[in-house]
Amino acid sequence: MIAGSEWRAFSKAPAVLMKYRDIEEVWTAVDRYISDLLVPSDEALDAALHSSAEAGMPAIAVSPSQGKFLMFLAQTLGARKILEIGTLGGYSAIWLARGLADGGRLITLEADAKHAKVARSNIARAGLAHVVDVRLGRALDTLPQLESDEPFDLIFIDADKPSYPEYLEWAIRLSRGGSLIVADNVVRNGAVIDKASSDPNVQGVRRFNDLLAAETRVTATAMQTVGSKGYDGFAIARRL
User: Fold this and answer.
1) Smallest Cα–Cα separation from 83: which of 209, 177, 45, 74?
2) Which of 235, 214, 216, 215 is closest to 224 using CA atoms?
3) Counting Cβ atoms within 10 Å, is residue 161 exposed (0-12), middle (13-18) or buried (19+)?
């Protein structure tokens, strides 16, 4: 917890922020302000979050503002084919599918049968079952089945972190020049800078970042994020 005097000296924050117990409460409050202002309540998305919580899923879906950002990326690309690795309850899949160009299709991969069932229901409720294909199975087993397909315009990676290096290799293999590859959770509350970390999630992300930096077939960057989901970040790569 950051005491009021420490917080004021550290950040020169306005007095209105002194009511919050710590900086994460500030992040959450600002996230709520942004969502209330720019990402109004949406029945299908709210229902997806609710049903996911009711099913006992962890609250690790992207935030509303992050979901809308993913939709904007898809729209900007004019994406006709999107691949998502890690479906969870289908929240981000709904955002991504709403960004598809006419006639487009999204394939989302999920290893957990319970998650896949909930996601299919949420996606159907959102009226997107005709453009979203939820495929059940370990991603490293289902990704090879996509090699014969046309390349994907946008690939979103948000699954088990130890497998991120392999997911990056597949994303490059399944994309084309101009495609975007987006990976979530690449900062890990700052732990990503700890090369001695014993956390397999941190080490998976570190290997992913190292591969991304060395890969000559992409140009990439990463951004730190704060908000209701805590302190983390996205990596974004453009396929050359």
Assistant:
1) 74
2) 235
3) buried
| Residues 216, 99: Cα–Cα separation, whole Å | 28
DSSP assignments along 6-64, one per residue:
HHHHHH---GGGGGSSSHHHHHHHHHHHHHHHHS---HHHHHHHHHHHHTT--S-SPPH
Encoded amino acid at 131, one letter: V
Can you give the residue ranges of every domain in the chain? 4-38, 43-239
- Residue 123: predicted pLDDT: 98
Q: What's residue 22's pLDDT?
A: 79
Would you state the structure tokens that stand for residue 230, as one six-digit string?
């805590």
Which of these, 63, 50, 113, 125, lies nearest to 87 by C-alpha position?
A: 113
**CA 29: distance to chain centroid?**
21
Q: What is the mean pLDDT of residues 19-30?
A: 84
Please state which architecture CATH assigns to domain 43-239. Answer: 3-Layer(aba) Sandwich (3.40)
User: pLDDT value at position 2?
Assistant: 47
Laid out side by side, the sheet with 152-157 consists of 132-136, 105-110, 81-85, 152-157, 175-184, 230-239, 218-227
Nearest residue to 135 (alpha-carbon basis) of 72, 149, 200: 149
**Rounded-to-integer distance, Cα 115 and Cα 52, Å:** 8
pTM attached to this predicted model: 0.93
Read off φ and ψ for residue 110, nearest 5 degrees: -140, 130
Q: Could you give the CA distance from residue 237 to residue 228 in angstroms, rounded to a whole number?
A: 25
How many other CB atoms are found less than 10 A from the CB of residue 15? 8
CA–CA distance, 29 with 24 (Å, rounded to integer)? 9
